[in-house]
Design brief:
The complex is a heterodimer of chains A (258) and B (269). By secondary structure, chain A is of the alpha+beta class. Chain A contains four helices and 19 strands. Chain A is 27% helix and 26% strand. Chain A is elongated, with a radius of gyration of 26 Å. Chain B has 269 residues and is of the alpha+beta class. In chain B, 22% of the residues lie in helices and 31% in strands. In chain B, β13 and β14 form a beta hairpin. In chain B, α1 packs antiparallel against α2. At the A-B interface, α1, β15 and α4 of A face α1, β1, β2, β3 and β4 of B.
Chain lengths: 258, 269
């Protein structure tokens, strides 16, 4: 089959993946603390360059043949989401960089589980947990947080310290990954930090009580992406048809001599 | 395949329609005494790994992280918002408002939730036996160990829940009994049963009974009612947002459908 056919195929496949990512972003346009996924592509190097060869004048045309397209790893758009006020004292949002920490299962070894979804609740054992999946939230010392039985006046400071009246209960841990490229989404509001190396969250990061961070998905951009991606796939499939027709004509024309 | 995109958008539509249902119920109850609004909590579902971290990425480089594609959203659960509603003064002696935490306990049929129901709707009335009952269609009886005699006048309920009345021929008030309040460690874990009634669950914890004003329970105000805590503005904003995001997700279904048609027509000229 001619070379170009596979280039168009690669274009179609990458287009499909991008469409899936747009679909997931839009489905999570109202998910608290959700960070939009960004899928990026790069041009594949010419066959010759990829194999370690150098450009030569004699084969300039062939060397310059691009190898289609490749995926880059999925990244997250970590920009700040909009903040909305709520009536629930256990709704907290982060303003600025950083993540809350969740209790990670033992199988994860050194990896950490992080989240930006601050819709917390209290479970039957009195622990502070994610309202959605029920996974315990960790304090700055890495322990789970037990709320008092009689939370008459629960107050959370900008530095994450939880007060019951005047008594300090615990401080919600806020950390910043050493390298955000090691973040990987796990689903159910959890983001896994491979390797688990963290540093102190920046001093400007504030924990806001009675507030939730909205999803960072921008519906306008997502819809524009959707149009771009679906047309891209259409172009690629048209080109595949053209290649097919050309090959067909080739067989028809030269086949008569046989 | 873009089958994934189709399914992903479908999870969006189904989660958003749950959100629409909850908003509709909140708005319908914007005038219900002591109604507590609820909200749907969304979470992203699983991510499908298309390429593992550390794999060669073509140009003799390695991927630090993998390529993953998310599979959509789900409604993780609904959460009740127990913030205090506005106070409506009525002047009716059997209208009781809880100012602060706590619930009145009412007697449900014995075979249902151990017969224990909890409500914040304090619009009570008297039945023919002199018992305080809910003025709603259900008419469940308030769980107290006293009745109000037919001849009683000037029935008054103190902030601490003591009920007194003047019983002729006496001219000074006599104490009839005590109304208690019940608190829960995690009220958001209560189950809504309709009729303004909540029942306890594993998640809410055990009922903690105390006199009003003690151990974190609120006070009682006679002659007032708690209004619904539904904020119509918030609900309408949420309605608009839900509807628009719903539309966008159905756009994804159309785009995925068109793409599938293009692909299946590659050979169809």
């Amino acid at each position: 089959m001619n070379y170009g056919f596979y280039l168009s195929t690669a274009g179609t496949i990458t287009g499909l993946r991008r469409m899936e990512t747009v679909a997931n972003n839009l489905a999570n346009a109202t998910t608290v603390g959700f960070k939009a996924d960004v899928m990026s592509m790069k041009a594949r190097e010419a066959e010759n360059v990829e194999n370690g060869g150098a450009f030569s004048d004699a084969n300039a045309a062939l060397d310059a043949l691009g190898g289609g397209t490749l995926f880059e790893p999925t990244r997250m758009d970590l920009s700040q989401g909009n903040l909305t006020k709520t009536g629930n004292p256990l709704d907290v949002a982060l303003e600025g960089d950083g993540f809350f920490q969740l209790q990670a299962p033992k199988e994860m070894k050194g990896d950490r589980l992080l989240t930006r979804a601050g819709s917390f609740a209290r479970d039957t054992q009195g622990r502070l947990v994610l309202a959605t999946s029920g996974v315990p939230v960790l304090a700055d010392d890495g322990q789970t947080i037990t709320l008092p039985d009689d939370p008459t006046r629960l107050r959370i400071d900008r530095d994450g310290t939880i007060f019951n009246g005047e008594d300090e209960v615990a401080r919600i841990g806020v950390v910043m990954p050493d390298d955000v490229r090691n973040l990987k989404k796990e689903g159910r509001d959890a983001i896994r930090l491979i390797g688990g190396r963290v540093k102190q969250a920046p001093a400007g990061t504030a924990v806001l009580q009675n507030t939730l961070e909205e999803s960072t998905v921008d519906p306008v951009l997502a819809l524009a992406d959707l149009i771009k991606v679906s047309r891209g796939i259409e172009f690629s499939t048209r080109l595949m048809q053209t290649h097919d027709q050309m090959t067909g004509r080739l067989i028809e024309t030269f086949g008569r001599f046989a | 395949m873009s089958y994934i995109a189709l399914n992903t958008a479908a999870t969006g539509l189904s989660a958003l329609s749950t959100s629409l249902d909850v908003t509709a119920n909140n708005l319908a109850n914007a005038n219900t005494t002591a109604f507590k609004s609820s909200r749907v909590n969304f979470e992203d579902v699983y991510y499908q790994e298309m390429a593992q971290p550390g794999l060669a990425a073509g140009n003799a480089t390695q991927r630090p992280t993998g390529l993953y594609v998310g599979l959509g959203v789900q409604a993780a659960g609904t959460q009740l918002d127990f913030t205090q509603g506005a106070t409506e003064t009525t002047g009716n002696p059997f209208d009781l408002l809880i100012e602060g935490d706590g619930f009145f306990e009412v007697q449900l049929p014995d075979d249902f939730a151990e017969g224990r129901g909890f409500t914040r709707a304090g619009n009570f009335t008297l039945n023919k036996d002199g018992e305080l009952v809910m003025a709603s269609s259900s008419g469940f009886r308030l769980r107290v160990d006293f009745t109000i005699p037919p001849e009683a006048t000037d029935v008054s309920v103190g902030v601490d829940g003591t009920v007194t009345a003047v019983l002729p021929p006496a001219t000074t008030p006599t104490e009839l009994g005590q109304i208690t309040l019940t608190r829960f460690i995690n009220p958001a874990g209560l189950e809504s049963q309709g009729n303004n009634i909540y029942t306890m669950t594993e998640a809410s914890g055990d009922p903690l009974e105390s006199n009003p004003g003690e151990q974190g329970a609120g006070f009682i105000r006679q002659g007032a009612l708690e209004a619904s805590n539904v904020d119509p503005v918030t609900e309408l904003v949420s309605l608009i947002k839900t509807q628009r995001v719903f539309e966008m997700n159905s756009q994804v279904i159309q785009a995925a459908n068109e793409t599938l048609r293009n692909i299946s027509n590659i050979r169809g000229y």
